[in-house]
């Protein structure tokens, strides 16, 4: 078996609660995650480093190093369901300055946890042949200890 899987069956959930510790155990202790329904595109997430360059005049060569990191942005595309518990929390989070906890459960059992601020919940009105949808922008954050995305691999 190759270990490659599709994204079919992936679940993304949200909680207003912050973990006691920014590790797998801390996130697993959050019991009120609400699955966000009707997601059609889960977007990308992952740490990105800023490039730092140094150009000494004596050899003209550019040296490159990693600088600060950013856990990035994530855009969710979804069909609007005003009765969906996860979408209700997501919509309310737009007007809240707090970080929210997110859980991404993949088909094979791996899990990603992270904190994010919900920056937007933009409704889209398409054509007569469109489903009423929204685009949600998340800004992933980092704890004061530098912990961002917590990956838990399936056993």
Please explain how this structure is put together:
- The chain is mainly beta.
- The protein has a single domain, classed as Factor Xa Inhibitor (Irregular).
- Helices cover 9% and strands 41% of the residues.
- The chain contains 2 helices and 10 strands; from the N terminus they run E-H-E-E-E-E-E-H-E-E-E-E.
- The protein has helices spanning 24-28, 85-93; strands at 11-15, 34-35, 39-41, 48-54, 63-70, 73-79, 100-105, 111-124, 133-140, 150-152.
- Strands 1, 2, 3, 6, 7, 8, 9 and 10 form an 8-stranded antiparallel beta sheet that branches.
- Strand 4 and strand 5 (63-70) form a beta hairpin.
- The model has no long low-confidence stretch (mean pLDDT 96).
SSE topology:
Layout: E1 11-15, H1 24-28, E2 34-35, E3 39-41, E4 48-54, E5 63-70, E6 73-79, H2 85-93, E7 100-105, E8 111-124, E9 133-140, E10 150-152
Antiparallel strand pairs: 1-2, 1-7, 3-6, 4-5, 6-9, 7-8, 8-9, 8-10
Shape: globular
Q: Give me the number of helical elements.
A: 2
**Beta-strand fraction estimate:** 35-45%
Number of DSSP E strands? 10
> How many structural domains can be distinguished in the coordinates?
1
**N-to-C span:** 16 Å
Main beta sheet: strand number and arrangement?
A: 8 strands, antiparallel
Secondary-structure arrangement, i.e. CATH architecture: Irregular
Helix and strand string, N-terminal first? Answer: EHEEEEEHEEEE
Residue runs with pLDDT of under 50 for 5 or more positions: none
Helix content, binned percent: under 10%
User: Could you name the CATH topology?
Assistant: Factor Xa Inhibitor
Q: Class by helix and strand content?
A: mainly beta
- State the CATH class: Few Secondary Structures
Q: What is the gyration radius calculated from CA atoms?
A: 18 Å
What do the pLDDT scores average to?
96
């Amino acid at each position: 078996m190759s270990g490659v899987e599709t994204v079919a069956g992936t679940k993304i959930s949200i909680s207003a609660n912050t973990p006691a510790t920014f590790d797998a155990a801390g996130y697993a202790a959050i019991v009120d995650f609400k699955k966000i329904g009707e997601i059609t595109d889960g977007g990308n997430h992952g740490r990105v480093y800023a490039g730092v360059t140094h150009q000494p005049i004596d050899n003209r060569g550019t040296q490159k190093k990693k600088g600060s990191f950013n856990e990035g942005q994530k855009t969710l595309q979804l069909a609007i369901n005003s009765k969906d518990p996860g979408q209700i929390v997501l919509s309310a989070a737009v007007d809240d300055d707090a970080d929210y906890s997110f859980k991404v459960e993949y088909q094979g059992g791996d899990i990603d946890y992270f904190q994010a601020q919900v920056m937007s919940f933009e409704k889209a009105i398409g054509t007569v042949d469109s489903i009423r949808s929204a685009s949600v922008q998340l800004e992933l954050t980092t704890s004061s200890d530098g912990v961002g995305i917590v990956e838990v691999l399936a056993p």
